[in-house]
Amino acid sequence: MLGYIDKIREISKRLLDEGRVDMVIGFRKGTMPMMNEPAFVKTPGEVSTLVWDSNCGINLANYLTDRKEKIGVIAKGCDSRNIVTHLLENKTKRDKLVIIGVPCKGMIDRRRITAMFDDEVREVTEEGDVITVKGTGFEKKLKKAEILQDNCSKCIHRNPVLYDELAAPLVEEQKDIDRYADVRLIEAMSPQEKWQYFEDLLSPCIRCYACRNACPLCYCPTCFVDEARPQWVGKSQDPIDIRTFHFLRAYHCAGRCTDCGACERACPVGIKIRQFTSKLNRDCLDMFGWEAGLSLDQRPPLDTFKPGDPGDFIK
Amino acid sequence: MKVIKIDKKDWTGGIKKIQDSYRLFGPVKGEKFHDFKELGKGELPDLNFSNTRLSPKSIVYPQSEIMFEYSLDEKDSDHHIMKDAAKNYSPRAVLGIRPCDASAFLLVKRNFDTPEYRDPYWIRAYEATTFIGAACNNPCSTCFCTTAGSGPFNEEGLDILLSDAGDCWYAKAITEKGEKLLNAAGWSKAAAGGSLKKIESLKKEAEARISSSILTDQLKNKKTTELYEAPFWEDVSFACINCGTCTYLCPTCWCFDIQDENSGCSGVRMKNWDSCMFPLFTNHGTGHNPRGTKLHRVRQRFMHKLKYYVDKYDNGIQCVGCGRCIRSCPVNIDIRRVCDMMNSYDPKACACPVK
Ligand code: SF4
Ligand code: SF4
Ligand code: SF4
Ligand code: SF4
């Protein structure tokens, strides 16, 4: 994917030169291995600071919410689906956007790679499908396909679903992927086991809300956990409050989550937050044949009623 | 200065003895990373780590701490009266704290222990604690302690400094508190002459391995209003998602919020960590928020650490260079970069936008 950057810069420069956009939102090179920083460029001279590689896992749709400028935005498959969701929910306007689509081959899992080595990873470079990891006194080549973020390894929408420009030819989508093995594992548990599983899952949570804030869906002006009048949720480390936050947030994402993985990527203590949303995603698929963000022409299942909707839960 | 040699075979026994008279905290490896925990009897700290994901500040300053308890039941004679919550300020020791994190306590102390105000919870917990540092032989690439007023062998804030000399530990007692703990552990073998020299050379080597630095020399001379109005804040804050990770993980961030929580007919008043990155932090009762945008909030975090603190205490920056905020920020906002922008800011040079 390294090869994309020349084209991305060329498109960005053209859009800025022609005055079609006020800014282009993309990534600049991070200060640490496997990190890039979301950034904007406002002048053609700055487009050389834009980068693209396998460390662009942050979802840029999150940076479009309620912005008034004309924006060029770089969008991989999941970002584009969240842009569609944003459009459906009136969080941005189509005529304000120029979407620079990036056919994606997946982002690498920074946490997993870091955990593979006892010593600090000091440099990570990529060439095609080979990722080279270096530290003091060690160097290892890894196959990219084996160290993808979990959501990327299960992604079947790598190509942007909505775009005005394209940074590279479309890529082949992954086929025959078992996307919901984790969900089935949990479903098979007894209630006690499930309880314990989620207790363990959430026990390291420090309630920083990075997961929520990295998620493009979580744009409420005041999140229910921040509401002070009345205050719905306590502020301490009480497990009830922590659970309340996670369960409610997950339900707020039902039928909207694109499985972009931004939440998991952001969590400082490595909680697998997608364990909640994956189940809801699968239910939406099973019950409504719905995957979020694929089309501008259909209302999401949870904000519309169709006579054929399953109603077995009404007894 | 007394240096004790601890043979590695005497390590476990000493730790057990410490636990006879101290509650002992140390780094423990969880599923994914190291963090400080109170060690069970006979449980050993795992010193094979670079640094913990969360800072050890919670040992003195828990994320949630109950201050008072009360009853709302009018049948109780003392209903609606705040009563001190039960506390345990018996001696505690932190074994394996990094020097940067230990010096962070001194910095926080400037805020919690002033002639005007004294935070009784923080002070009593702090005074009950003995800090046994583990010097860093292998700092990470994101550590910049040596230019942030600390260092891999820095002794400020420590009662004992342990240096790993391969087959043994050298324990340098820095305070009386430290000597007391060494006695309690039964570690008493004076190190042979030359140990100080050895520690000094380990220190030099470690300092030479610090590959990252910041410049802070100009911060004091900058005009607060000019820095506040600098044009770079839009660029600096753009990526920030206001998640608060940086402040929760930081050993020097001290802000808290006081909350009452009732359950049935009783309740508690507690203090919880808060963060200037959260919109709620400055929300007024009127609904007005003077730090209404993320630009305001990000600017506050850096201005506080790198300018207001500098001016108020004249004692360096409010950062010890542990690098946690750099390593864990989900969007790679890097305090080193921002510090350089602030330190080198020249309003005249920035009068017109870059074309
Ligand atoms: S919940 Fe997580 S995976 Fe789903 S859209 Fe939000 S950030 Fe992406
Ligand atoms: S990002 Fe992680 S630690 Fe923070 S609130 Fe979410 S799950 Fe909890
Ligand atoms: S950790 Fe990063 S994104 Fe989160 S509040 Fe701090 S600077 Fe912003
Ligand atoms: S500001 Fe960052 S580097 Fe400085 S002490 Fe806090 S967490 Fe460590």
Written account of the structure:
The complex is a heterodimer of chains A (315) and B (355). By secondary structure, chain A is of the alpha/beta class. Chain A has three domains: 1-107 and 154-173, no CATH class; 108-147; 178-305, no CATH class. Chain A is built from ten helices and nine strands. In chain A, strands 1, 2, 3, 4, 5 and 9 form a six-stranded mixed sheet that branches. A three-stranded antiparallel sheet of chain A has the order 6-7-8, with no helix packed on it. In chain A, strand 1 and strand 2 form a beta hairpin. Chain A is globular and about 60 Å long. The termini of chain A are far apart. The mean pLDDT of chain A is 95. In chain B, 30% of the residues lie in helices and 19% in strands. The longest helix of chain B is centred in the last third of the chain and has 20 residues, at 294-313. Chain B has a seven-stranded mixed sheet, sandwiched between helices. Chain B has a four-stranded antiparallel sheet with strand order 5-4-11-10, with no helix packed on it. In chain B, helix 1 (11-21) packs across helix 4 (176-185). Chain B has helices at 11-21, 99-112, 120-127, 176-185, 195-209, 224-228, 233-237, 245-249, 294-313, 324-328, 335-343, and strands at 3-7, 23-29, 34-38, 64-71, 83-84, 92-97, 129-134, 160-164, 168-173, 256-263, 266-273. Chain B is of the alpha/beta class and 355 residues long. Chain B has two domains: 3-209, no CATH class; 219-343, no CATH class. The model of chain B has no long low-confidence stretch (mean pLDDT 95). Chain B is globular. In chain B, a hairpin with a 2-residue loop joins strand 10 and strand 11 (266-273). Chain A binds chain B through residues 30-32, 35-40, 43, 45-46, 58, 62-63, 111, 115, 119-120, 122, 204, 206, 208-210, 212-214, 222, 226, 228, 234-238, 265-270, and chain B through 30, 32-33, 50, 53-54, 63-64, 138, 140-142, 235, 238-239, 241-245, 248-249, 257, 259, 261, 270, 272, 275, 278-280, 283, 326-328, 330-334, 336-337, 354-355.
